[in-house]
């Protein structure tokens, strides 16, 4: 197994008022539904695992939502229902993925729709998110654009979203529930960089 330069970054906590968890491209949230398991409502920390990838520099290899900070001993695919069929994986077209509550997903979709209704030429990432991401830019990042952010769509509202760059960009990615003694302890989104390494 190839040795990699790796580091972990704590993003902060995300609020899950219903405990119904979504993982997706934030701008394609209408394509998904909450995952098959529900967690207790509350705030949960999010971490990203970063690794150095040759000429690409530091990239997000995986993102983890921590339910219990223990070492897992098993994993199962995170799935959701679409048209009454079980689906795994999620599509990324904006170079971003996220963790958020189902109620936040619906709320964020309305916020973005209203934003574009006010100005059809506006860009939510460029006009709203870019400055937030840049404030979190890692000193090792060459472009200083930032690769993660905890976004609050509406000031004063506790609903928030952990957003993070998806590995090397757009594609089809998967998420897994990690378990300890058959109890959920993490949700991990894998961006297909670590290959034989385990992103926990």
Task: Outline the structure in words.
- This protein is 14% helix and 42% strand.
- With 200 residues, the chain is mainly beta.
- The longest helix is centred in the middle third of the chain and has 17 residues, at 102-118.
- 34% of the residues are buried.
Q: What layout of secondary structure does this protein have?
A:
Elements: E1 6-16, E2 21-24, E3 42-53, E4 57-66, E5 74-77, E6 79-82, E7 85-88, E8 90-92, E9 96-101, H1 102-118, H2 124-135, E10 148-151, E11 161-165, E12 171-180, E13 183-190
Antiparallel strand pairs: 1-3, 2-9, 3-4, 4-13, 5-12, 6-7, 8-12, 9-11, 10-11, 12-13
Derived from helix and strand composition plus strand pairing, the structural class reads mainly beta
Cα shape? globular
Task: State Rg.
Answer: 16 Å
What multimeric state do the chains show?
Answer: single chain
What is the strand tally? 13
What distance separates the N and C termini?
A: 17 Å
Number of helices: 2
**Sheet with most strands:** 7 strands, antiparallel
Low-confidence stretches: 196-200
Beta-strand proportion: 35-45%
């Amino acid at each position: 197994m190839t040795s990699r330069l790796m580091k972990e970054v704590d993003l902060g906590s995300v609020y899950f008022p219903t405990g119904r968890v979504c993982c997706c491209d934030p701008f394609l949230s209408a394509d998904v539904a909450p995952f098959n398991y529900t967690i207790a409502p509350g705030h949960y920390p999010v971490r990203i695992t970063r690794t150095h990838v040759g000429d690409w520099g530091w990239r997000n290899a995986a993102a983890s939502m921590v339910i219990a900070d223990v070492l897992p001993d098993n994993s199962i695919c995170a799935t959701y229902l679409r048209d009454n069929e079980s689906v795994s994986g999620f599509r990324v077209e904006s170079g971003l993925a996220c963790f958020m509550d189902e109620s936040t997903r619906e709320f964020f979709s309305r916020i973005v729709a209203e934003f574009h209704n006010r100005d059809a030429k506006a860009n939510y990432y460029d006009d709203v998110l870019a400055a937030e991401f840049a404030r979190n830019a890692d000193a090792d990042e060459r472009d200083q654009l930032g690769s993660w952010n905890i976004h609050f769509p509406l000031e004063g509202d506790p609903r928030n979203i952990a957003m993070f760059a998806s590995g090397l960009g757009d594609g089809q990615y998967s998420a897994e529930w990690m378990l300890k003694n058959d109890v959920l302890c993490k949700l991990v989104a894998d961006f297909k960089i670590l290959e034989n390494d385990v992103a926990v």
